[in-house]
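Notes to self, ADP-ribose pyrophosphatase:
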Amino acid sequence: MEKELSILLSKLQGIAQTGKQFGKDIFDQERYEELSIVAKELTHLLYPELPERELMIFFDEDEGYATPKVDIRAVVFNQEGKLLLVKEKSDDSWALPGGWADIGYSPKEVAEKEVMEETGLKVKAERLVAVLDKAKHAYPSSLTYVYKFFIRCQPIGQKIKPGIETSEVGYFTLEEIYALKLSKARAIKQNYEMLFHDYQHEKNEMICD
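result:
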């Protein structure tokens, strides 16, 4: 139920944000502003522990036509068929290298940049494995509506080391990944199964919700 409510709140805020940008007159602007306030109050009730800063980012800092945010995840296998993961300092959990898409960078460039920053490894982004709608899969509930891009990358070199935001890096088999403490907001077990299946069969097919 919580996940369904968070999706509805995202839609409600999206309607209010888009309406405030494209409303035809002062009356439209007032109604959409009221709608945004109601959405914010409902969010306070659903997530009383949510910091005010996160609420401000979600409700006040974005503007214009509301669109999903894009999360880029780099998929890097070594010669032994193991997958590169990083341990995030923020939640002490393991995940694929990656992060939010940056303005001024293409999706492939973001994947390459994130791997370098988080693991010290230079890679060449090759192809898009999947685009998933986060709300349609078993991720934890989130206010932000997110599309997740998984991009296969070819390693150039072998040396890996933690970055500013990571405490450990390593290559793992699927069975080893099952035993790790995973950052479920970044990738869930089904994602790893999908990625290993793609690697082992090399179908070069893109999965898209």
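- Residues 68 and 145 are 5 Å apart (CA to CA).
- The radius of gyration is 19 Å.
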